[in-house]
Structure formats: structure tokens, C-alpha cells
Write a structure and sequence with these properties.
Strands 7-6-15-16-17-14-18 form a seven-stranded mixed sheet. A five-stranded parallel sheet has the order 9-2-1-13-19. The protein is globular, with a radius of gyration of 22 Å. A hairpin with a 5-residue loop joins strand 6 and strand 7. Helix 1 packs parallel to helix 10, helix 3 packs antiparallel against helix 4 and helix 4 crosses helix 9. The protein is 35% helix and 19% strand. Among the domains are: 180 residues, FAD/NAD(P)-binding domain (3-Layer(bba) Sandwich); 108 residues, no CATH class. The protein is an alpha/beta fold and 486 residues long. One of its GO terms (molecular function) is oxidoreductase activity.
Length: 486
């Protein structure tokens, strides 16, 4: 039995703690904040409840496997329900598309919106993405990856490596789609990893494939309940959760890790340390490593987000769980977020999540989570006086221009900026996904789950295989296998 300290109670850290506790290890989770869940946060006020982070669950089987391996099945502790349509899209020309939850219905929906030729072209791109998923879904995403040679070894032949083609971008793949609206739809999936479609590898076409093949899902009462259930599971398998316990250093000697030091001076001894903090913070602050820092400096952090939480009176006609309202010029948005002069996006894509769930709003009202892509805090000073409120007003005006005027329905609103994400989660600049996937190295060669220091392991969005609810749980499964049973 190893003494394990998990630094950070985000979803990756909790998943690792649950697996390691169930495997018989002595596990303590230390979290700087006063609660668990990391970016999977929540806000409740006056009968309204908001998920303040992820709002769509894909690949729920990853969490079913996690809960089955650590105790009672997932579906006994939370209610996971399909979202149908998965998303409603509005394009700059006013054309609208409901993308169905059921894969077989996607082609007919696209044919109705854009014509049969466009539907066939999208289907061809997704057929190739299915092949990519076979190549990376288990061999790459669910196993440790230590570098380029590992990737080459796991490609059965040269044709497989050519199919992965990490040098080809999602934007270049989109040129197979003559309809500009389909190209815009494909580009959007780069933002699922906080990235720029002009730089993210075409391999990311597996993201829309996964969403369409396995569907989009919601946890009744809000996705935060998934974090609560996972924290409960950690306690059930014997792990200890310590909140308001920030770590200032990972302690090491010549043999490897020896524990962690808390900011108040307390030292927790450990044979194994699992880090669920941003890799940049780990190697800059907790265990300075210039070599690791130089490698990370070559990778863009992911984009951040500006969020409005809107408590709305009344109901919206033709409600949808998820809406995406595209701008006229998508590239201008990515220029603003990732360019040399980062700035709040003037004409942003607006994402709205408004669950038809009686648990999240008073009867007859709605709780809206509104998100726009935003540059990180630092390049933009999101604490500048008045900026957050002015930009919040601007986002409401953009919604109005795109046919969703809710300004006279707002009972109250809360704003979350990249500066808030940085403060609350410790992510550098409020980067939602840790590292972006901008470029082959960033997408496929994130920091390894096993560090160079003996006994140190990494989980979470900045480590392999990446950010998002399914992937951080996969990183925890990888680490649990590397550490092994007690």
C-alpha cells in the first residue's frame, strides 16, 4: 500500500483518487479551494442553479467504467439523460440546424438544412474520422504516451501514421466541404480543446465524430452532480478530501518524491504524488523544472471564456438545451483570442446552455449559461474597472442581433471572466483546457502522465490525453494503471 497525495480535486484528481483508493492505497486529496470539482463548478441563488463549467457530457461510458470499477454503477448515483437535439446552430445567413442526438438522423438533418450534397460531404469527412478514432481512441488516448516514438510504434503501419497526419490542420480538412456553413461547423470543434482550427491537427475531426456516434448527454440537476457523486465515491473507498489546503511545493529527495508541503508549513509524506494542477503551475511553482518549462513554453495555453449566468423570467419560444450562434467572420474571433494583440472578441460566437430541467430554475423561468471565447487573463486585464460589465452588456446586444433578445427578462446576472477562472481554479490565465492543441506537439505530445521524477504522476487537462470531462478521466485511469494495486 502506497501513501498517495493527490494535489487538486478537479475531475481528474478525483477520478485518480477514487481508482487508487479502490485499489487499496492510502489516499489524501488536497485542494486549494473550499470545494471539489475544479472547473466543473456551480452557482445557486434564488432558486436558480447554474453549471459554471462544462455543460455537455460526451463518452459517458468513460464515467460508467470509472464508477463500476470503484463501487456502485454510475446510473445508481446520477441520472444521465440524452440531449436531443445535441445542439441548435444558427449560421450568419440565418439558416438554422438542429443536430440530432442519434447518429443515423444527422445526415437527413444536414440534407434538410444544406442540401443532400452537403450531407454526403459531411458524411465522407466523418467516415474518415471514424477510421482515425479506431487508430487513436484506445491505442493513444487511453495509454501512456511518452513521445513521438511511442506514437510511431502504436501506428500499425506507415498508412496508419499517414492517416493520423498530425501535420495537417482541421482547417485544411475543411476544404473538402464546399459549403462555408459546414466548414464553420467543423471549425467549431477546435474550441472543444480550446484551440484554433487553423492550427489544430485534422485529427480533431474525431471530436464531432465522437459526439455524433456516442451522443451528447446531460446529468439531471446539472453536471455538477457528477462531481459530487465522484467526491462521494472517493470518500466511500477511503480517500480523505482536504479543502482550503493549498500546496506550495512538491517535496523530493535523490530517490524521488517524498510528499508535499502546504502553504501553512504542514508536510504530508507520500510515496506517490498525483498532480491535478496545470502542468505550467506544477513545473513553475511546485517543482521547478526548467526543461519542462521550456517545453511547455512552446505550447499555447488554451483559450479562456467569458460567461454570463442569467436568471431569466419566463420561457423562450422553441427552447433548446444548447445553442450556438455563429458570427460573420469566425477567423476574426480566433485572431482576437490567439493573435499577437489579444482582445475581447468584438463579434463573438455565442454559446447558450438552457436546460429544460425543473431542478435548475423556478417554475416558468430559465437559467441560462452564456459563453463566448475569450483571450486569457494577462494578455487582457480582465480586472480592469468596468470591463466585465461593459462586455456583458455587449454580449447581450450580440444575442439580440442574432434573434435572442432577453434583456427585459433578466432578473439578475453574474459574470465570470478569465481572471475569475485563474483565481478559482489555478489555471494559467484562466485557460479552460490547460494546454491548447495548436500544433502537432500540443495535440499529441502533452506532458506525460509519468513524470521524470520518480513517484510523480500527472492527470488533468494539461497532461496526456488532454482536456474535457472524458479525457481527464482517461488520464486518471492511465495513472492508476501505472501505479498499480496496493
Amino acid at each position: 500500500m502506497a501513501r498517495v497525495v493527490v494535489v487538486g480535486a478537479g475531475m481528474g484528481g478525483l477520478a485518480a483518487a477514487a481508482r487508487l483508493g479502490a485499489a487499496g492505497h492510502d489516499v489524501t486529496v488536497v485542494e486549494q479551494a473550499g470545494t471539489h470539482g475544479g472547473k466543473l463548478g456551480t452557482l445557486s441563488r434564488d432558486g436558480y442553479t447554474f453549471d459554471t463549467g462544462p455543460s455537455l457530457l460526451t463518452l459517458p461510458e468513460v464515467y460508467r467504467d470509472l464508477f463500476a470499477a470503484t463501487g456502485a454503477p454510475l446510473d445508481e448515483v446520477v441520472e444521465v439523460v440524452p440531449v436531443d437535439p445535441t445542439c441548435h446552430y444558427r449560421f450568419p445567413d440565418g439558416v438554422e440546424l438542429d443536430l440530432p442526438h442519434v447518429e443515423a438522423e444527422v445526415g437527413p438533418a444536414l440534407a434538410t438544412a444544406f442540401g443532400p450534397t452537403a450531407a454526403e460531404q459531411w458524411g465522407s469527412v466523418m467516415a474518415d474520422a471514424a477510421r482515425l478514432w479506431d487508430l487513436v481512441g484506445e491505442p493513444v488516448l487511453q495509454r501512456p504516451l511518452r513521445g513521438v516514438l511511442d506514437l510511431v510504434r502504436r501506428s500499425a503501419n506507415v498508412r496508419d501514421l499517414a492517416a493520423i497526419a498530425p501535420w495537417r490542420t482541421l482547417r485544411s480538412l475543411g476544404r473538402r466541404l464546399p459549403d462555408p456553413r459546414l466548414r464553420m461547423l467543423l471549425d467549431r470543434y477546435a474550441t472543444y480543446t480550446g484551440s484554433d482550427p487553423r492550427r489544430v491537427p485534422a485529427l480533431m475531426s474525431v471530436v464531432p465524430f465522437v459526439e455524433q456516434r456516442f451522443g451528447g448527454w446531460y446529468v439531471r440537476g446539472g453536471l455538477r452532480r457528477l462531481a459530487d457523486a465522484l467526491a462521494d465515491r472517493c470518500l466511500e473507498v477511503g480517500a480523505r478530501l482536504r479543502y482550503d489546503a493549498p500546496v506550495c511545493r512538491v517535496e523530493v529527495d535523490a530517490r524521488g518524491v517524498t510528499g508535499v508541503r502546504l502553504r501553512d508549513g504542514e508536510v504530508l509524506g507520500a510515496d506517490v504524488v498525483v498532480s491535478d494542477v496545470d502542468a505550467r503551475s506544477l513545473y513553475r511553482d511546485l517543482l521547478p523544472d526548467r526543461r519542462a518549462q521550456r517545453s511547455l513554453d512552446r505550447v499555447d495555453p488554451s483559450l479562456s471564456g467569458f460567461v454570463l449566468l442569467l436568471a431569466l423570467r419566463g420561457r423562450t419560444p422553441n427552447p433548446r438545451h444548447h445553442r450556438v450562434l455563429f458570427p460573420q467572420d469566425y477567423d476574426a474571433e480566433f485572431d482576437a483570442v490567439f493573435g499577437r494583440s489579444p482582445r475581447p472578441v468584438e463579434d463573438p460566437t455565442v454559446y447558450v446552455c438552457s436546460p429544460a430541467d425543473p431542478a435548475v430554475a423556478p417554475a416558468g423561468d430559465e437559467a441560462w449559461f452564456v459563453l463566448v471565447n475569450a483571450p486569457r487573463h494577462g494578455p487582457v486585464d480582465w480586472t480592469a474597472p468596468g470591463l466585465a460589465d461593459r462586455y456583458g452588456d455587449h454580449v447581450l446586444d450580440v444575442l439580440t442581433r442574432r434573434g435572442l433578445d432577453v434583456r427585459d427578462r433578466v432578473r439578475w446576472r453574474e459574470v465570470r471572466t478569465p481572471a475569475d477562472w485563474e483565481r478559482d481554479t489555478g489555471s494559467v490565465g484562466g485557460a479552460i483546457y490547460g494546454s491548447s492543441s495548436n500544433g502537432p506537439r500540443a495535440a499529441l505530445l502533452r506532458p506525460a502522465n509519468r513524470a521524470r521524477v520518480r513517484g510523480l504522476f500527472l492527470v488533468g487537462g494539461s497532461a496526456h490525453p488532454g482536456g474535457g470531462l472524458p479525457l481527464v478521466a482517461m488520464s486518471a485511469a492511465i495513472v492508476a494503471r501505472l501505479i498499480g494495486p496496493a
